[in-house]
């Protein structure tokens, strides 16, 4: 009797451990039951993946069996994919075909998503639409107060993203109006800015790459999007490798893993070797301890430590600009990048060393003094960025207390800034060791 109770306790503990460490299985939830049935009707065979909620990544997919490198994770039939072909075969097709100038494949997909969402119960895609996020955390969705706390150049790119989506909306209004015969309500209320923002984020964050042949009814932008229900629940990790492509023989989109995964663990795919700023800009999230992550140094910060009276200053800047050495200057987990050190090395050249600028760009040692000054200025820039990051983190914590409605978005930027701080502190440590070694 006693032995039996011990075994039951162990089972209970194991079950608790499984749900807290690996995730809580969501297969029983009605929206996922409906989605799986909808997919099955379209030829999708049940895989070993189950929808689940995870502590670190939120919603994702867990595996019910251990996966080995070379295993097929998921195979989604063509009938399950939402592409421009799907849009053209819908009631929107004839309106897209006759509209001039042609709409882009992106706008076609956005229009379809908005129209289907509006259709509600009547939509054939309702089971998929029901599991799509209601809101997104891409910079285009963030309030101005939150965007202003993003690091450069992400702040600038976020503003460009917002402008681009707004222009997309303005340039598509006439096309949206042409769809009026399809709707009882005014198209202006259906296809409003917030509806387009949601549809754009859905396409931008969730599509897989799938090349389609060019159609005359679309503009010349590449038609490379496909929305992949269920498959798009897979989250990104920079530490896994996968092979993903449309299989012409099976007429399915397939993902094969090159990594191992234990039973009941979350299954990840990799969107590419993106740093956290790129991940946040394109997908609205970032990865903790991302090996590809960087903190960017703007050209303004770079020049703060060089005397404006340096007679070669303009010539040095011209050399760096012509050779694209004023962009993508970074600190990473392994310290300052080669590009950053090289730019600073060239800027640190004395008048009598200036003729050696080509050698400096190749990474050659010009003089002990030049090496020392380069490291000193790099360390100063690193400490400046640490102070700036700490200042912004203080602002965020104050804003979180004042603006309850922005709490989630502020927490996202705060986490990104804390990750930046870890990178900069690691770089400062590396630079300190380098300075000691060269002293």
Automatic annotation (TrEMBL):
Residue spans making up a coiled coil are 389-419
Q: State the EC number(s).
A: 2.1.1.364
* Residue ranges with Basic residues bias: 1-17
Enumerate the UniProt keywords alphabetically.
Coiled coil, Cytoplasm, Inflammatory response, Methyltransferase, Nucleus, S-adenosyl-L-methionine, Transferase
Lineage, top-rank taxon, reads Eukaryota
What residue stretches are annotated with the SET domain?
A: 47-272
Note the Pfam families from the entry: Rubis-subs-bind (PF09273), SET (PF00856)
Q: Which reaction does it catalyse?
A: N(6),N(6)-dimethyl-L-lysyl(20)-[histone H4] + S-adenosyl-L-methionine = N(6),N(6),N(6)-trimethyl-L-lysyl(20)-[histone H4] + S-adenosyl-L-homocysteine + H(+); L-lysyl(20)-[histone H4] + S-adenosyl-L-methionine = N(6)-methyl-L-lysyl(20)-[histone H4] + S-adenosyl-L-homocysteine + H(+); N(6)-methyl-L-lysyl(4)-[histone H3] + S-adenosyl-L-methionine = N(6),N(6)-dimethyl-L-lysyl(4)-[histone H3] + S-adenosyl-L-homocysteine + H(+); L-lysyl(4)-[histone H3] + S-adenosyl-L-methionine = N(6)-methyl-L-lysyl(4)-[histone H3] + S-adenosyl-L-homocysteine + H(+)
Q: Which CDD domains match?
A: SET_SETD4
A single Gene Ontology CC term:
cytosol
* UniProt xrefs under InterPro entries: Rubisco_LSMT_subst-bd (IPR015353), Rubisco_LSMT_subst-bd_sf (IPR036464), SET_dom (IPR001214), SET_dom_sf (IPR046341), SET_MeTrfase (IPR016852), SETD3_SETD6_MTase (IPR050600), SETD4_SET (IPR044429)
Q: What class of enzyme is it?
A: transferase
Does the keyword DNA damage feature in the UniProt annotation?
A: no
Q: Which GO MF terms does the UniProt record name?
A: histone H3K4 monomethyltransferase activity
Q: Where is this region: Disordered?
A: 1-20
Report any one BP term from Gene Ontology: methylation
Localization per Swiss-Prot or TrEMBL? Cytoplasm, Cytosol; Nucleus
Q: How does this polypeptide assemble, per the annotation?
A: Forms a ternary complex with TBK1 and ZNF268; the interaction with TBK1 is ZNF268-dependent and leads to TBK1 monomethylation.
| Family assignment from sequence similarity | Belongs to the class V-like SAM-binding methyltransferase superfamily. SETD4 family.
Query: What is this protein called in UniProt?
Result: SET domain-containing protein 4
Primary gene name: Setd4
């Amino acid at each position: 009797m006693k032995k039996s109770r011990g075994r039951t306790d162990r089972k209970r503990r194991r079950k608790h451990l499984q749900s807290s460490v690996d995730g809580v299985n969501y297969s029983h939830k009605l929206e996922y039951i409906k989605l799986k049935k909808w997919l099955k009707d379209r030829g999708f065979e049940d895989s070993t993946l189950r929808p689940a909620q995870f502590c670190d990544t939120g919603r994702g997919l867990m595996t019910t069996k251990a996966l080995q490198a070379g295993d097929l994770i998921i195979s989604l039939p063509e009938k399950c994919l939402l592409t421009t072909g799907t849009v053209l075969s819908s009631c929107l097709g004839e309106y897209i075909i006759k509209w001039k100038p042609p709409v882009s494949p992106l706008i076609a997909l956005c229009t379809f998503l908005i129209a289907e969402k509006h259709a509600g119960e009547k939509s054939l895609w309702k089971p998929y639409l029901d599991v799509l996020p209601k809101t997104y955390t891409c910079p285009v969705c963030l309030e101005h107060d939150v965007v202003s706390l993003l690091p450069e150049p992400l702040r600038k790119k976020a503003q460009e993203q917002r402008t681009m989506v707004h222009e997309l909306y303005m340039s598509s209004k006439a096309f949206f109006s042409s769809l009026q015969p399809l709707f009882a309500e005014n198209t202006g209320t259906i296809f409003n800015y917030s509806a387009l923002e949601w549809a754009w984020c859905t396409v931008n964050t969730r599509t897989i790459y799938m090349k389609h042949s060019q159609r005359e009814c679309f503009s010349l932008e590449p038609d490379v999007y496909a929305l992949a229900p269920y498959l798009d629940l897979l989250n990104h990790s920079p530490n896994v490798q996968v092979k993903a492509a449309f299989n012409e023989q099976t007429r399915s989109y397939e993902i094969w893993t090159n990594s191992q995964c234990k039973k009941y663990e979350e299954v990840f795919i990799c969107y590419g070797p993106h740093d956290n700023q790129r991940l946040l800009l394109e997908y609205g999230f970032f990865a903790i301890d991302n090996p590809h992550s960087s903190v960017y140094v703007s050209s303004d910060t770079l020049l703060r430590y060089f005397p404006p009276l340096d007679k070669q200053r303009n010539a040095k800047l011209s050399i760096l600009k012509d050779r694209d050495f004023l962009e993508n200057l970074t600190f990473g987990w392994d310290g300052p990048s080669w590009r950053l050190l090289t730019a600073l090395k060239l800027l640190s050249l004395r008048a009598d060393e200036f003729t050696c600028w080509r050698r400096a760009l190749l990474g050659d040692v010009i003089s002990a003094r030049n090496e020392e000054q380069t490291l000193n200025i790099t360390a100063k820039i690193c400490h400046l960025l640490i102070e700036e990051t700490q200042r912004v983190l203080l602002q965020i914590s104050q804003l979180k207390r004042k603006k309850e409605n922005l709490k989630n978005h502020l927490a996202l930027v705060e986490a990104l800034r804390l990750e930046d701080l870890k990178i900069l502190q690691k770089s400062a440590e590396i630079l300190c060791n380098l300075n000691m070694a060269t002293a």
